Amino acid sequence: MAGARPGVHALQLEPLRVPETLIKGSKFMKWDEVSRAGETPCLPRFLFDVDLLDISCIRDTRTGRYAKLPKDPKIREILGFGGPEQRPEDKLLTVVHGPDLVNVSFLNFMTVVQDDTAKVGRGKVAGLFWGAVGQVRVFSAWVLDTEWKGPLGFILKMFSADKKRVETALESCGLNFNRSESIKRDEFTLEIFERFLNKLCLRPDIDKILLEIGAKGKPYLSLDQLMEFINQKQRDPRLNEILYPPLTRAQVRQLIDKYEPNQQFQQRDQMSMEGFGRYLGGEENTIVPPEKLDLSDDMTQPLSSYFINSSHNTYLTAGQLTGNSSVEMYRQVLLSGCRCIELDCWKGRPQDEEPFITHGFTMTTEIPFKEVIEAIAESAFKTSPYPVILSFENHVDSAKQQAKMAEYCRNIFGDALLIDPFEKYPLQPGIALPSPQELLGRILVKNKKRRAHGKGSEGSIRKKLEQTPSSYSDSSGVGEPGMYREAESEEEEEQQDPKKPTTDEGTASSEVNATEEMSTLVNYIEPVKFKSFEVASKRNKSYEMSSFVETKGLEQLTNSPMEFVEYNKKQLSRIYPKGTRVDSSNYMPQVFWNAGCQMVALNFQSLDLAMQLNLGIFEYNRRSGYLLKPEFMRRQDKLFDPFTEDIIDGIVANTVKVKIISGQFLSDKRVGIYVEVDMFGLPVDTKRKFRTRTSQGNSFNPVWDEEPFVFHKVVLPTLASLRIAVFEEGGKFVGHRILPVSAICSGYHYICLRSESNQPLCLPALLVYTEAYDYIPDDHQNYAEALINPIKHVSLMDQRAKQLVALIGESEVRAAGGQAWHGLEGGPWAGLVGSQRRKGARWGGVQPPLPYGQGLAECASGSFAWAGACHSLSHCVPSASLDVSPQSVEELRQHKAFVKLLKKQYRELKELRRKHMKKICSLNKKQRGQSSGEGAPCSLETIRQEHEGTRRKVDLQDWQIKGLLQLRESQHQLERDCKREHLRQVPEGTRAWEGQVPAKPAPRLQGGGAHREF
Q: Which phi and psi angles does 688 have, rounded to 5°?
């Protein structure tokens, strides 16, 4: 985005810095659970069987007690475990890597040297990936070992789609392409690698772009051409030119110095095709500005003003009926940026009485509650420092075990657990929730809260909890898959109707009330049963929230969309999948984001389209897990209908164009490739699917260059997202990218594709051309073009005015008896024509005419000269002679009769304009009376009725504007006629004034000479 950097966004993503310790390397002992002994010491080059580990696959690094400990006794003995004064766990380093959240692997290292190398690795290695999303970096052993040689087989395997092309590219770079040979590190530098890629993937599309810019067959761009390209093609037209000034010559010259590899081109301020390609892929030309990836939202608004990244049944790794539960899933989900996780807690067995987490009444496995709490404490704030919400589904019907759960939370979380509400935000009606910034580093508990009772009642509840038989039983069965969760209402079913059968409702029916110990942990996230939006509005308690199964949420959204939005302005709502999704599929979260629902919980283990959209959206704002909702979804004085199809008051709609030009390294197979482009947002904005044609067997560098896909009107850009996805011809997913419409940069850009889990892919990319600008209705296109390019518009209007005035002027002259028309085009007649044309440009529109004095002054020098010329010519014959010279314009201007006429005409025009202004005021007053309404506060019903009448008000306003324009046009016509009449009066008086002005002697002239004089 040209000029988007200076002075607007203070925070910037810091460049990646690799510690010297990791660059030089250090000796480690590598071990795993499969091997029976530790392997020989090696450098921490992240090698596994002579393979390279892409750093984008690294999900976490752990040291100390959180690192993997060897279970095999022999390995423990070799590594020094069990010694009297040794702490080998401080020397451990575990690297967690994998393609997604479920399928993760562990590389275990133990440093041989006694230093802090392991801790440095923990802090920096994961940060290399998580700290800068979108940059792909690979740990290469070539950088660490000067003697190591890389096999060519690895390169041939990486680009296996066309081996002949690979061999040709290697040969052109001076490299041996024998599979059995190896390449030394100093022979395969970064420059050689870039040259190899350029030879491997030819770019005719770049040549075409250079030709369109204006290179005209030259292999370079000049500085001026590059500056025009950046400030015109690459600039976002929605930007303010003061806050985001265009790039200067000095800034463009810096880009040439940075990206142009040829020194001769640099010295001549030119950029070659190779340098231009580097610039297109550089950090100054990203499809989304870097500040959008950084913390760009205001984090000081109430908690209800944000979309919160939320998980459903966080512990599951597969389906809802027979999947495995995993403690590691809590770590991975938190590391991905999720801020709301779910814990389904059940009563432990009598032998240990340790509560555990599982999916009740199913065959899913169990995991200890304590281990989950420890995992949360270790990973909660690695990715984001903003608050984590623990959504408890509590089925522990044992007061003792509930007390143990509360104790684990207090002891393990420590000060991070928020128990007492802030003094600034007491739990009282009308008090807003604290902000994420004020809750920084805090953990909030969402659990049923015990109501205030007397002592006797409290004792009876505790006794009842202890006497209630456990709902967990081996003979309870699985139940009907479609019912065990569909009827689940979690915490909103606060009081069960005793007449209703609860055994078929699944786990929700067995959820128990909280004991005193668990209740004390609940403050700002207190779940209550949802009754109605009206009841919630009357209670006005921001700390109360409700959960909705997706079917109930859709019902509320369909029946009361505006009330749902109003509810979410103050209170939190949580949406979770329906029970029939036993395969852990997800609903589309965009549906509930449109209503302002904050916690739209999804199954993170399923990387379907809904989850891909969720991961792509929450990638922004530094992956904090919090995204600020659009302003009108937060303001109390604004109403919003999620199903609106009209332009929203105060929101500028956008038009988005996407042209898929080409792709690079999209697949390692020789297959056809196609691209899909989708828009997600409000129902009126959502459009699926645009699709390119399928390239024929070319996955290296397919070129489409088709007509752009146009999303004509995006009503709410701040809530809309663009998805560009690449597929093989058989439908296999290759990669995609989710882009917020409000942040898309215009121009030519490379898009680094992401995997299904939103991890950057190493080489696959698309070259696209995008345009995102303010939406303009078809009826207003001419006005918009005039504002965008006023010089061009004025030139066009002048051209039209000249054509019209030429016709008007000719007819007027002939009517006045000017027979000398054809012979005076270059003489004094030109003055009148110029004056008339200048006025014609103004008469053609509704702009106010020139001031009266200025208008007459313009025509004085032309029309008076023309009048004198015509009068003299009408009395001249070829043999006639003149005794006196013609009277000058200045002499006529000073004549008393002319001054008197001028004042009279001024009074007439002034009186005419006064009458016109009086009519305009009268019309405005009448229109205000038609459109005025009551200003008193109104109820929600009245407001909705007014909202339904908005279209009628808009039609009334259009009618009023048209009436005002018609009145103004008629007034301008009258003023123009008045001026014309005044101009006709001037030549008639010149004959009478001519004899009264003292004549000056002049040389005797012949008729022919007099004619030439004129």
A: -145, 135
Strand, coil or helix: 393: strand
Q: Is 972 a catalytic residue?
A: no
Superfamily of domain 204-285: EF-hand (1.10.238.10)
Please indicate whether residue 793 is annotated as part of the active site.
no
Domain boundaries, the chain: 20-200, 204-285, 303-497+511-633, 654-775, 790-932+941-1009
Residues of each annotated binding site for Ca(2+) = 313, 342, 344, 393
- Rounded CA-CA distance 431/445 in Å is 19
- Give the pLDDT confidence of 491-536 residue by residue, as tens digits: 444 444 433 434 333 454 456 788 999 999 999 999 999 999 999 9
Tens of pLDDT, residues 332-347: 999 999 999 999 999 9
Q: Which tops the pLDDT comparison, 851 or 69?
A: 69
**Cα–Cα dist 548/335, whole Å:** 26
Mean pLDDT of the chain: 77
Classify strands 58-63 and 92-97 as parallel, antiparallel or unpaired: antiparallel
CA atoms within 13 A on the CB side of 727: 15
Rounded Cα–Cα distance for residues 277 and 208 (Å): 12
Positions at the binding site: 313, 342, 344, 393
**Which of 9, 97, 359, 712 does the annotation list as catalytic?**
359
Q: Which two tokens stand for residue 9?
A: 């966004």
Rg (CA), the chain: 39
| Packing angle, helices 829-843 and 950-994, rounded to 10 | 160
| Residue 80 zone, left/alpha/beta (φ > 0; ψ -120 to 50; rest) | left
- Nearest to 616, CA basis, from 104, 9, 133: 133
* CA-to-CA dists, residue 862 to 829, 870, 899, angstroms: 7, 12, 18
Q: What tens digit of pLDDT does each residue of 275-305 get? A: 999 999 998 999 999 888 899 999 999 999 9
Set 312, 736, 895, 972: catalytic member: 312
Q: Where are the beta strands (DSSP E) in 584-668?
A: 599-602, 626-628, 654-664
What CATH number was assigned to the domain covering residues 20-200? 2.30.29.240
Taken as a whole, the chain contains a residue count of 1014
Instruction: Using pLDDT thresholds of 50, 70 and 90, give the confidence band for residue 783.
Output: confident
Mean pLDDT on 1-10 = 44
In CATH terms, the fold of domain 303-497+511-633 is TIM Barrel (3.20.20)
pLDDT tens string 386-419: 999 999 999 999 999 999 999 999 999 999 999 9
DSSP for 941-978 reads HHHHHHHHTHHHHHHHHHHHHHHHHHHHHHHHHHHHHH
The answer to whether 814 touches 807, Cβ cutoff 8 Å, is no
- Which of 608, 609, 611 lies closest to 600, judged by CA? 611
E strands in 681-826: 687-691, 709-714, 721-728, 733-740, 747-754, 760-774
Query: Which residues lie across from 95 on neighbouring strands?
Result: 61, 107
Residue among 288, 370, 334 nearest 739 (CA)? 288
Whole-angstrom distance, CA of residue 22 vs CA of residue 40: 19
Residue 1012: enclosing H or E segment and its boundaries?
Answer: helix 1007-1013
The reported pLDDT for the residue numbered 925 is: 76
Distance CA 523, CA 541 (A): 12
What is the C-alpha separation between 3 and 313, in angstroms, rounded?
A: 45
654-775 folds as Immunoglobulin-like (2.60.40)
CA angle at residue 142 from 139 to 148, to 5 degrees? 140
What order of strands is seen across the sheet that includes strand 92-97? 28-31, 105-111, 92-97, 58-63
pLDDT value of position 877? 40
Other beta carbons less than 10 A from residue 13's beta carbon: 17
Residue 455's Cβ-count burial label (10 Å; 0-12, 13-18, 19+) is: exposed
